[in-house]
Amino acid sequence: MGAYMPSGVPVLRDYRNPGDGAVPVRCTGCPIRDRAVCSLCSADELAKLDAIKSYRTYTHGAEIIGLGEDIEFVASIVTGVVKLTKTLADGRTQMVGLLFPGDFLGRAQTGPAEFDAVAANDVTLCCFSRTPFRRLMHETPNLEDRLLEMTMDELDSAREWMLLLGRKTAREKVASFVQMLWHRTGASQSDEGGEIALPLTRAEIAEYLGLTIETVSRQMTKLRGDAIIDFTSARNVRVLDMEALEEAAGS
Amino acid sequence: MGAYMPSGVPVLRDYRNPGDGAVPVRCTGCPIRDRAVCSLCSADELAKLDAIKSYRTYTHGAEIIGLGEDIEFVASIVTGVVKLTKTLADGRTQMVGLLFPGDFLGRAQTGPAEFDAVAANDVTLCCFSRTPFRRLMHETPNLEDRLLEMTMDELDSAREWMLLLGRKTAREKVASFVQMLWHRTGASQSDEGGEIALPLTRAEIAEYLGLTIETVSRQMTKLRGDAIIDFTSARNVRVLDMEALEEAAGS
DNA sequence: CGCAAACTTGATTTGAGTCAACTCCTGTGG
DNA sequence: CCACAGGAGTTGACTCAAATCAAGTTTGCG
After folding, report:
1. Disulfide: which of A20, A125, A212, B88 matches A75 by Cβ 3.0-4.6 Å?
2. What is the pLDDT of residue B194?
3. Which residues lie across from B99 on neighbouring strands?
4. A169-249: CATH topology
5. Which residues of A fall below an 8 Å CB-CB distance to B?
C-alpha cells in the first residue's frame, strides 16, 4: 500500500492500490480500463494487447526510468503515482510530469528518456515491450488515436503548468496544486469537506511548484489560517471552501 | 516580410519568408516538406492532403486563434513564427508555445482552444479543415504517426521549458533562450559568430522566460559584457562563444 | 522508546520586480 | 530632407517575495 497512507484512514482516492496490490490478470475488470490507452479498443483488440502485457511493481522511491536510458517498454499506470523529474548539473530539480492511474508512460518511438521517472508511492504498471506495442499500434487505429489524444492532453496540462511556474505567486501555486489534486483524484463536485491524501512529500510538492520546502509549508499554513483548507495530518488535506481555493489559485 | 528585419541585412534564418511571401501551390517544393506533419506521406497521400489544403496569411500581431474559440482548422506553419500564450485574470501572461516553420498548430480532436495563438511576425499557414483532416488522418497512418511524433516532441520541449521556468536564474533563462533560437533557426555547428535575427521583442522574450522586460534587458547586457554574445542591433544577436553560452544556460 | 525523516517556524538575505527616467530607432508628414 | 512622435530598449534606485540559514517540533518506523 502507499507508504504515505496513515493506517486506519479509510480509502479515499483511487491513486492508491485498490485491494491489496492484487492486480487484474484479465483486462476486463481492470481499474483503468475506461481511461487508459486501451480505452477505445474493442474486445478483440484488447485480446491482442492482453497477449503482450505484463505487470511490474515498484516500491515507493524506486527508479522506473533513468535519464538517458533507452527504455525497452511503455506502460499504463495501474495504481500509484509516478513523478517525472529533470535535474540541472548542480542538483536543482524540477518535476515535469505527475502520472496517475490510467496515464501513459514512455514514448512509442525510439530514443533515450529525457527525464527520470520515479515511483512516488507503491506503483503497479501494465507494461508493453516497445516493439510489439508499436506494431500493434500501427494495426490498431483505436490505440494510436487514444495515445495521440492522451499526449495532447498531457501537452495542454504541461502548458497550464508552465503558466503556474512562470507567473503565479507562491500562494497561487500551492492553492493550484491542491486544486489539481482535487481534480486528478476524481473528487466529485459535492465532495467539499472531503479529504485528499497527498501523494507527495513537501519536498516533492516544492519540486512540482518550483518552490522550496519552506515556502510550500508556509503557504499551506496560511491557506489553513484563511480557513480555505485544513489538515487532519500533514499528508491529509480537507478542502473547506472550494470557491475560495479557486480564487486563491488565480484561475 | 518580417517586420523586425532591418532592410539590407542578408537573409540568415529560415523562419522568415523565403522569396517574398510567394507561397507554393503544389506540395512539391514546399519549404517545410521535410519536417511538417506531411513529411512521411507518399506522393499519393500528399495528393489527398493537397486537395484539402489552403493557405492563409497573417500580419505581425494578428490573432490566429483566440482562447476558447472552437477552431475549425489545423495548420502547419509555412513561414513566420507563431506564439501561444496563456493569461491570468489580472493580465499576467506566459508564453507556452513558440512555433516555427514546420510546426503544427491545433488539435485534431474537437474542443475549444486552451490558449491564444498570435502571429509574432508575418505568418503563412498551410491550413486543413479539421473534419477532413481527421478523416484523412485515420486513412493515412503516416500522417497520424508523424503527428504523434511531433506532439511528443512538443511535450519534451514543454518539459525542458518547465525546468527553465521553475529552476533557472534570469541569466540562465536568457542564455537558454538564445541557445534555443540558435538551434530552432537551424544554425549549423560551425556557425559561431553567425547572426540570429530575434523573432521576438523584449516583451515577448520576457513572456517566454517568465521574467520582466527590464530583467531580460539587463541580462542581455551582462551576457554582452561577458563577451558571450554581441548585438549588431537590439534585434540581431551574434553568438561569440558557444561554449560559454551553453555554460551560462546551465545545460 | 528512540531515532531519523518530515515538517514547521523564525530571522535574514537576495535576486528579480517595480517605478521612473532616459536613449535610440524608425517611420511619417510637413 | 529634416523634425518629431512613439514604440522599443536600456539603465538606475528602491522594494519585496521567496530563498537561505537556522532552530525547533512532530511523526512514523524499527
Report:
1. A125
2. 78
3. B82
4. Arc Repressor Mutant, subunit A (1.10.10)
5. 84, 86, 88-90, 92-94, 96-97, 107-109, 114-115, 138, 141, 144-145, 147-149, 151-152, 154-156, 158-163, 165-168, 209-210, 250-251
